[in-house]
């Protein structure tokens, strides 16, 4: 469902070093990244801040064009076929809403129905289903700017799934959520993957997400893949009895050293 | 594309209509403030009989035609120059994950309905000018053509200006120099300016095709600079070329888009 082959992305950073002098530096946000995610998988994508997680997500969704390598998502090259891909993929950014700030949630959803050309009947039943599972009923008529973070995140997730995409990509979907909201989001994602077979890739700093949701974990550091395997494999990299926090800390610091 | 555009516009107007008083006042305010432009021209004519060789109704015609183009372009696509803000705030990412051209999305984001006030003002001036001019009906066809070409020219310049903002997020003002500047420039007959400037806005930034060259045809006047007669019919070609340049600039800007951190 998702294939990356030798993908790299560089950024040119200009730093002012004198009154007129500028230093140009090439930063490799992602280098020579290759992995595959099969249909129906639930993959956690881990990495310290600045490791290249978001850059990867943005390349998978077609927001950023890779500087090298090849990407296929749902059979399409994201940067070349971005608008076609948009119909086959759902995207959630935890840090930032993709909804319209001043519009009530309900209007946002109607707008999305038209943008994605979803049939009215299909939309109604899908929306009713999502409203029930994500408990959106209480705030459907509030403008997005008035929603709490937990409500907004559930609204964002619903918005990403209204067109029933086979792939869902989430960038830190549980960031800043309280334990109850977190549990609600996790339950929903698990059900989505189990019942509808949606392929899910999520980035997170919350290791609880990984433990409770992901069968497979990928760890990126300094722009390349440092670990790829099951949660059990991940645990096996550290001495017996270590908590998952300790396991991951070991991996992060080992890579940095 | 058009369907999505209309859909988004309706949604934004509905959102703005939740504050009807604000919407009405802003529209009326826009009508009045832009009316001051015309008042300035009227004051000039109270002292002189002609401006660059043109009478008051002729100047009103040129002003109204350019004003219509500018105001309609501003109403329909003017928000494109907010690209830099969207890039900085990271909201442009959200537009890229939708199955709709980000150009359309950004053009209608918070659709500024009040800009209709400016359209109304320009239309009024154009109508008054035409009422005093007795343009033969065989030449009237050029008026809608020039307004449409003008919309394309202004929109294209806006687009080029915002394409620069993909890499230089604060470059919005560069585009304004040509759009708002161009809007102001074409309010007067170009014959009041120096010959070099007129050549520049004819052959480099084709602002002369917004109202000047086709306007000379409608008014049936000789070109004060002696430029060839056929230039008067070139507005559609100039608009098309500029639109292609703008489309290329936008595409290349989009490929260079760097997004924000996180």
From TrEMBL, chain A:
Domain ABC transporter: 15-247
UniProt cross-references to PROSITE patterns, sorted A to Z: ABC_TRANSPORTER_2
Entry keyword set: Antibiotic resistance, ATP-binding, Nucleotide-binding, Transport
Pfam name, any one: ABC_tran
SUPFAM superfamilies (UniProt xref): P-loop containing nucleoside triphosphate hydrolases
GO molecular function: ATP binding
UniProt superkingdom: Bacteria
Recorded topology in the membrane: Peripheral membrane protein
Gene3D superfamilies: P-loop containing nucleotide triphosphate hydrolases
Compartments, record wording: Cell membrane
Protein name as catalogued: ATP-binding cassette domain-containing protein
Species classification: Bacteria, Bacillati, Actinomycetota, Actinomycetes, Streptosporangiales
TrEMBL record, chain B:
Membrane spanning residue stretches: 27-48, 60-78, 140-160, 190-209, 229-250
Superkingdom of source: Bacteria
Keyword ATP-binding recorded: no
Keywords attached to this entry: Membrane, Transmembrane, Transmembrane helix
InterPro entries linked to this entry: ABC-2_transporter-like (IPR010390)
Name this protein carries in UniProt: ABC transporter permease
């Amino acid at each position: 469902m998702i294939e990356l082959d030798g993908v790299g992305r560089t950024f040119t950073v200009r730093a002012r070093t004198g009154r007129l002098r500028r230093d140009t530096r090439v930063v490799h946000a992602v280098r020579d990244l290759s992995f595959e995610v099969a249909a129906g998988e639930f993959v956690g994508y881990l990495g310290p801040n600045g490791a290249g997680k978001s850059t990867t997500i943005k390349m998978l969704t077609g927001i950023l064009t890779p500087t090298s390598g090849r990407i296929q998502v749902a059979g399409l090259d994201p940067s070349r076929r971005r608008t076609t891909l948009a119909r086959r993929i759902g995207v959630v950014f935890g840090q930032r809403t993709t909804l319209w700030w001043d519009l009530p949630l309900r209007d946002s959803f109607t707008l999305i129905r038209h943008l994605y050309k979803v049939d009215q009947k299909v939309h109604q039943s899908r929306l009713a289903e999502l409203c029930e599972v994500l408990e959106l009923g209480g705030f459907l008529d509030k403008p997005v700017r008035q929603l709490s973070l937990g409500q907004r995140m559930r609204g964002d997730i619903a918005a990403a799934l209204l067109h029933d995409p086979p792939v869902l990509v989430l960038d830190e979907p549980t960031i800043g959520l309280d334990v109850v909201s977190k549990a609600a989001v996790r339950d929903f994602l698990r059900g989505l993957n189990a019942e509808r077979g949606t392929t899910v890739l999520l980035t997170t700093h919350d290791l609880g997400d990984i433990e409770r949701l992901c069968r497979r974990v990928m760890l990126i550091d300094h722009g390349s893949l440092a670990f790829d395997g099951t949660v059990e494999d991940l645990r096996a990299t550290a001495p017996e009895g270590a908590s998952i926090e300790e396991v991951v800390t070991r991996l992060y610091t080992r890579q940095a050293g | 594309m058009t369907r999505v555009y209309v859909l988004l516009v309706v949604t934004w107007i509905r959102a703005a209509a939740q504050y009807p008083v604000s919407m009405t006042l802003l529209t009326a305010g826009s009508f009045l403030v832009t009316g001051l432009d015309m008042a300035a021209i009227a004051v000039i004519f109270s002292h002189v009989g002609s401006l660059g060789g043109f009478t008051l109704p002729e100047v009103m015609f040129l002003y109204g035609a350019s004003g219509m183009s500018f105001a309609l372009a501003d109403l329909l696509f003017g928000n494109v120059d907010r690209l830099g803000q969207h890039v900085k705030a990271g909201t442009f990412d959200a537009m890229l994950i939708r199955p709709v051209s980000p150009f359309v999305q950004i053009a209608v984001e918070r659709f500024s309905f009040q800009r209709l006030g400016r359209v109304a003002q320009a239309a009024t001036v154009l109508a008054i000018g035409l009422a005093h001019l007795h343009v033969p009906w065989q030449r009237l066809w050029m008026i809608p053509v020039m307004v449409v070409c003008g919309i394309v020219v202004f929109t294209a310049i806006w687009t080029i200006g915002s394409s620069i903002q993909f890499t230089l997020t604060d470059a919005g003002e560069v585009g304004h120099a040509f759009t708002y500047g161009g809007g102001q420039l074409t309010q007067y007959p170009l014959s009041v300016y120096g010959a070099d400037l007129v050549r520049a806005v004819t052959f480099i930034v084709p602002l002369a095709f917004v109202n000047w060259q086709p306007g000379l045809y409608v008014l049936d006047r000789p070109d004060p600079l002696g430029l060839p007669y056929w230039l008067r019919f070139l507005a559609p070609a100039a608009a098309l070329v500029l639109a292609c340049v703008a489309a290329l600039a936008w595409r290349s800007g989009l490929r260079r888009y760097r997004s924000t951190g996180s």
